[in-house]
Each structure stands twice: as structure tokens, then as C-alpha cells.
Write a structure and sequence with these properties.
Layout (H helix, E strand, L loop, with lengths): L1 E6 L11 H8 L4 E6 L12 E2 L9 E2 L1 H12 L8 E11 L2 H8 L3 E4 L9 H8 L4 E5 L9 H12 L10 H4 L22 E2 L2 E2 L9 H19 L1 H4 L9 H9 L12
Parallel strand pairs: 1-2, 1-6, 5-6, 5-7
Antiparallel strand pairs: 3-4, 8-9
Helix pairs in contact: 3-5
GO biological process, one term: tRNA N1-guanine methylation
Family: Belongs to the RNA methyltransferase TrmD family.
GO molecular function: tRNA (guanine(37)-N1)-methyltransferase activity
Length: 262
């Protein structure tokens, strides 16, 4: 996969040289290109922002530097087009399902903004040529979109074939589509079996795969109910067995809450 990032702070992306993503880059699985937006600003101060039309606080990023920068990136391969991703608090939520969708793309172009964002004509211009997604990593505001790009590149990059040592890890993630979809992952443990008076749950030492699977699902239901109760409403009621329904009842969460009726 090729990933391009246009930013006024390309140095922000040094973390992409380390850990799993760094190894993926070394092995050629992930091809990351960083671009300094100011290279396409032609005044002496390399200005990329100006006051907003209509008034209001803050500054807006100018369309000219962005247009020239994006055109230059697109010219790198005239035979295809990247999917452009614009990090913004007003975008659609970034989810595991969307990360999996992006992982299937051959080319992604991220355009993290600063100030009050990018002149909206830029998205209108390129939305007529290629897919442009405005995406939010959460209901909060950051100083800039670079950290959101780091989040998304890591979430997407670890899903690429050959990046994780154990491909099963991605399948078992919280929010991964499948039997546990919309359930948070439960607690995890490793050696030693006892640490500072805290013992690993006996079932995990039993070697009984059926009991272990049941325990993990129960813990996933409990953690989801405690931390993200709204996710239970998105569960398919048909995916709940009798044991699930009994557990939800014990948690004062009737099984029909999973259908959105409760």
C-alpha cells in the first residue's frame, strides 16, 4: 500500500519509523511519502492560511497551496487515483470497519489541516475526481490533524497482510467484524499465574477451549456493558444465545436491549 501525507509538520510523522509500522515500511509492505505543504506556497513567508470570508475567529488554509500539492501527488501515478482522507471533527467516525475498508485500498492520501481547516473548495474540487472522505477520530478537537493521521495509519497498517506476526490478532480485535462484533475485547493475562496477590482466572489455565471461549465472551459482554453500554444496542439479537441473555439479565440489561428496543 502507498500512503501519502501532506502537512505543514511532516516531522510529526517520525513515529511511523518505529514498531510494527516501521517494520512494515522496511519490508516494503507500506510505502509512506511525506510532503511539506509550504513547498507549494510561493510568497516569501510561505503562507498557507488567510482570514475566513464572513468573519469569525481563526484562520483558514488557502486552496492554492493545497491544490498544487495534491496535483503533484496525483501526478506520481496518473494511471490511478488515491482515496483522499481529510481528518476533521465534523467527519464520519473512524471505525474498525472503515480501517478494514481502507486496508483494501492500494493508495491513500491524507490531508491533515491546521487552524480552522482547509478551504472547502478543495474537497469539492477533488471530490469530483476521486473518493474524498472526511473522517473524525473522536468527538473532540485537536490542534491539528496530524495525530489523527497517525491513528488511522497505524489502525490501517496493522491490518495489511504480513504486518502482524499472528494474523489472528486482527480478527480478535475489539470492533472487528465477526461473532464478537460490537463487543469490546475482554481482559487478557500472561505469566506468571500469580502477581502481587492477583491470580489469573482458573478457567484460562484449564486447557478447556470451550469453557475459555465462553468465559471470554462473558467478559466481553460485561466490559461492553460497563464501558460502552450503547454498543449493546447495536448487537444482533439473533447472535445472543441463552447464556448471553441470562448474563445480560444479571447485569440488569435485558436481552431485548440488544435489539435497540430496551
Amino acid at each position: 500500500m502507498r500512503v501519502d501525507v501532506i502537512s505543514i509538520f511532516p516531522e510529526y510523522f517520525a513515529p511511523l519509523d518505529v514498531s510494527l509500522i516501521g517494520k512494515a515500511r522496511e519490508r516494503g509492505i507500506l510505502d509512506v511519502h511525506l510532503h511539506q505543504l509550504r513547498d507549494w506556497a510561493h510568497d516569501v513567508h510561505r503562507t498557507v492560511d488567510d482570514t475566513p470570508y464572513g468573519g469569525g475567529p481563526g484562520m483558514v488554509m488557502k486552496p492554492d497551496p493545497w491544490g498544487e500539492a495534491i496535483d503533484a501527488v496525483l501526478d506520481a501515478d496518473p494511471t490511478t487515483r488515491p482515496r483522499i482522507i481529510v481528518p476533521t471533527p465534523s467527519g464520519v467516525p473512524f471505525t474498525q470497519r472503515l480501517a478494514m475498508e481502507y486496508a483494501a485500498e492500494p493508495w491513500l492520501l491524507f490531508t491533515p489541516a491546521r487552524y480552522e481547516g482547509i478551504d472547502s473548495r478543495v474537497m469539492a474540487e477533488y471530490g469530483s475526481r476521486t473518493r474524498v472522505d472526511e473522517v473524525s477520530v473522536g468527538d473532540y478537537v485537536l490542534a491539528g490533524g496530524e495525530v489523527a493521521v497517525l491513528v488511522m495509519v497505524e489502525a490501517v497498517g496493522r491490518l495489511l497482510p504480513g504486518v502482524l506476526g499472528n494474523a489472528r490478532s486482527a480478527v480478535d480485535d475489539s470492533f472487528a467484524p465477526g461473532a464478537m462484533e460490537n463487543l469490546l475485547e475482554g481482559p487478557v493475562y500472561t505469566k506468571p499465574p500469580e502477581w502481587r496477590g492477583h491470580e489469573v482466572p482458573e478457567v484460562l489455565l484449564s486447557g478447556h477451549h470451550g469453557r475459555i471461549a465462553r468465559w471470554r465472551r462473558d467478559e466481553a459482554l460485561r466490559r461492553t456493558a460497563k464501558n460502552r453500554g450503547e454498543l449493546l444496542a447495536a448487537l444482533d439479537p439473533e447472535s445472543l444465545d441463552k447464556h448471553d441473555r441470562k448474563l445480560l439479565a444479571e447485569l440488569d440489561l435485558p436481552a431485548d436491549s440488544a435489539s435497540g428496543d430496551g
